[in-house]
């Protein structure tokens, strides 16, 4: 019945087809990301009122929280793509998994830096061994491990497969780390400072946050497609379709 | 073609690795020496006050053990890859996961067991109360095999790569965070007179799971890393 | 907050030293992330074109060789 779906997926996963598909979709994703991002920033930085407890410092939330979500989301995407690449040996899935890793690491890095910039005025310290912060740091190390393993192989496909395996081990590890760090935090209570209790957000603060979340998703698509296109070109550099592209771009 | 039954094959792998390790006894002593040196440095860095050393003793010994094991981890399969015996093992009719399990066991016996034996000495140097010592040994008995198993999977993944030393540490860190937390948590709880059985039980559960899964993952990782 | 004023916007209620660096890091990292494949792609294509030029030069020099 719905026979065209696997057929379409199969066609799309061939490198030249995906290269063209990503090329047409990428500008749209980028434009949407920029538009939504601008709207969210306007809403967050200008329209939303200052927090009664934290003043204007809370405005870091509009990038901090979406980036934290993206760090986890991209790890999930990477693990799923890794699984697909190991089970069905689809080249495109390998490339998607390996090119997701630097983007996810970038988002996790932003989360850590903005978190500590937020923590300084609020907690009075750049860093505290809070459960969430520590989990985020471990997540960054997981990303770095995947990237490092990928680049330590001579053969790129072999490196991609090894790193994909590591990504899958990592996704099993993430909930374990979260659980153990939570337990550790209750064991050593008193060392953490918690001013930010669970608080309700007003809708004026919520909509810029959610808009920013959507914007970062679109940014991820745009960045991922750009990276995948580049990777496909260098992986298939002997093939005819890549030579044609190289010849076309030299004329311009 | 009749192939050797499983039990003698396992025993042969284990005996071979232990014999090889025994021929190079100096290498076995290295992690032990390393742990001794690191532990000696703590009082120099922190000052010789009993109370302070007592407070950090459990955690310091655990981290020292972890680093000493990490030092030896890198060499787990190296000589086997260089002389090609690992490839022979992969081609053999016996299940690779089981053979890997034997190799991990041999590695644990040669590196972790000597470390556990000197652990009371190290803890004593840092004035860990004698009453807490058994808990430290339990924690080490459960945590070190766990680290060996997790480490073996990562070493297998890096088997075909150019460099691995620092990379291995980077890859192992996220995996060993829960192990360190629970092992150190048990020691800390015992030191404060709190019940310490729960974290030990968690470690045991994790070890039981790793005993089953890690050799399989190790075999899969080796196949990925070595065949192109 | 009735009228929008640039000064109070920049001041961020006294937290400018934390809010603006956070946003700067956000944009800096993402722009770097976005540009790195563009640069890599340009370099790859340049290398490929050089290789193609070498190959065609060799083909012209010895057209009959196998």
From TrEMBL, chain A:
It is a multi-pass membrane protein. The chain crosses the membrane at residues 28-48, 60-88, 100-119, 131-150, 162-185, 205-225. It is found in: Cell inner membrane; Membrane. Keywords: Cell inner membrane, Cell membrane, Cytochrome c-type biogenesis, Membrane, Transmembrane, Transmembrane helix, Transport. Coiled coil: none annotated. Residues 29-188 form the Cytochrome c assembly protein domain. It holds the Pfam family Cytochrom_C_asm. Its main location: membrane. Belongs to the CcmC/CycZ/HelC family. Required for the export of heme to the periplasm for the biogenesis of c-type cytochromes. This is Heme exporter protein C. It comes from Dyella halodurans. The lineage of its organism: Bacteria, Pseudomonadati, Pseudomonadota, Gammaproteobacteria, Lysobacterales.
UniProtKB/TrEMBL annotation, chain B:
The keyword Cytoplasm does not apply. It is a multi-pass membrane protein. InterPro entries: Cyt_c_biogenesis_CcmB (IPR003544), Cyt_c_CcmB_bac (IPR026031). Signal peptide: none annotated. Keywords: Cell inner membrane, Cell membrane, Cytochrome c-type biogenesis, Membrane, Transmembrane, Transmembrane helix, Transport. Its main location: membrane. The chain crosses the membrane at residues 28-46, 52-73, 104-123, 135-159, 166-188, 200-226. It comes from the Bacteria. It is found in: Cell inner membrane. Belongs to the CcmB/CycW/HelB family. Required for the export of heme to the periplasm for the biogenesis of c-type cytochromes. This is Heme exporter protein B. It comes from Dyella halodurans. The lineage of its organism: Bacteria, Pseudomonadati, Pseudomonadota, Gammaproteobacteria, Lysobacterales.
TrEMBL record, chain C:
This is Heme exporter protein D. The keyword Coiled coil does not apply. It is found in: Cell inner membrane. It is a single-pass membrane protein. Required for the export of heme to the periplasm for the biogenesis of c-type cytochromes. Belongs to the CcmD/CycX/HelD family. The chain crosses the membrane at residues 20-39. It comes from the Bacteria. InterPro entries: Haem_export_protD_CcmD, Heme_exporter_D. Keywords: Cell inner membrane, Cell membrane, Cytochrome c-type biogenesis, Membrane, Transmembrane, Transmembrane helix, Transport.
């Amino acid at each position: 019945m719905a026979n065209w779906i696997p057929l379409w997926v199969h066609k799309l996963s061939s490198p030249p087809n995906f290269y063209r598909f990503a090329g047409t979709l990428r500008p749209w994703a980028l434009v949407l990301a920029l538009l939504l991002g601008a709207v969210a920033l306007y809403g967050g930085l200008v329209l939303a009122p200052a927090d009664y407890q934290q003043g204007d410092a809370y405005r870091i939330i509009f990038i901090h929280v979406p980036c934290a979500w993206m760090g986890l989301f991209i790890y999930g995407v990477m693990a799923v793509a890794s699984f697909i690449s190991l089970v069905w040996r689809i080249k495109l899935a390998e490339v998607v998994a390996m090119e997701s890793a630097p983007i996810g690491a970038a988002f996790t890095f932003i989360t850590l830096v903005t978190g500590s910039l937020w923590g300084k005025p609020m907690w009075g310290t750049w860093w505290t061994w809070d459960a969430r912060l520590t989990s985020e740091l471990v997540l960054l190390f997981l990303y770095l491990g995947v990237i490092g393993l990928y680049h330590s192989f001579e053969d790129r496909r072999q490196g991609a497969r090894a790193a994909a395996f590591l990504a899958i081990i990592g996704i099993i590890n993430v909930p374990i780390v979260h659980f153990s760090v939570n337990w550790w935090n209750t064991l050593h209570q008193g060392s953490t400072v918690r001013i930010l209790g669970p608080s309700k957000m007003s809708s004026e603060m919520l909509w810029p946050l959610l808009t920013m979340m959507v914007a970062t998703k679109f940014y991820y698509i745009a960045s991922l497609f750009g990276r995948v296109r580049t990777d496909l070109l260098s992986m298939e550099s002997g093939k005819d379709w890549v030579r044609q592209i190289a010849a076309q771009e030299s004329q311009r | 073609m009749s192939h050797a039954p499983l039990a003698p094959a396992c025993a042969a792998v284990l005996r071979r690795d232990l014999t090889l390790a025994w021929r190079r006894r100096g290498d076995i002593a290295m992690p032990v020496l390393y742990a001794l040196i690191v532990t000696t440095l703590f009082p120099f860095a922190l000052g010789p006050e009993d109370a302070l050393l007592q407070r950090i003793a459990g955690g310091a010994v655990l981290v020292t053990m972890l680093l000493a094991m990490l030092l030896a981890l890198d060499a787990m399969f190296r000589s086997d890859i260089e002389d090609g015996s690992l490839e022979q093992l992969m081609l053999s009719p016996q299940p690779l996961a089981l053979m890997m399990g034997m190799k991990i066991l041999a590695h644990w016996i040669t590196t972790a067991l000597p470390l556990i034996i000197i652990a009371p000495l190290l803890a004593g140097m840092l004035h860990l109360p004698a009453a807490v010592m058994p808990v430290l040994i339990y924690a080490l008995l459960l945590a070190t095999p766990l680290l060996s198993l997790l480490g073996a999977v990562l070493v297998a993944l890096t088997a075909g790569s150019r460099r691995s030393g620092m990379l291995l540490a980077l890859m192992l860190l996220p995996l060993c965070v829960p192990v360190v937390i629970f092992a150190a948590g048990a020691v800390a709880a015992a030191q404060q007179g709190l019940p310490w059985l729960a974290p030990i039980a968690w470690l045991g559960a994790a070890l039981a799971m790793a005993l089953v899964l890690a050799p399989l993952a190790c075999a899969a990782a080796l196949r990925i890393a070595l065949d192109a | 907050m009735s009228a929008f004023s640039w000064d109070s916007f920049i001041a961020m209620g006294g937290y400018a030293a934390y809010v603006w660096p956070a946003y700067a890091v956000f944009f800096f990292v993402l722009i770097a992330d976005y540009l790195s494949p563009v640069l890599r792609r340009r370099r790859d294509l340049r290398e490929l074109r050089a290789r193609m030029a070498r190959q065609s030069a060799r083909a012209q020099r010895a057209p009959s060789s196998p």
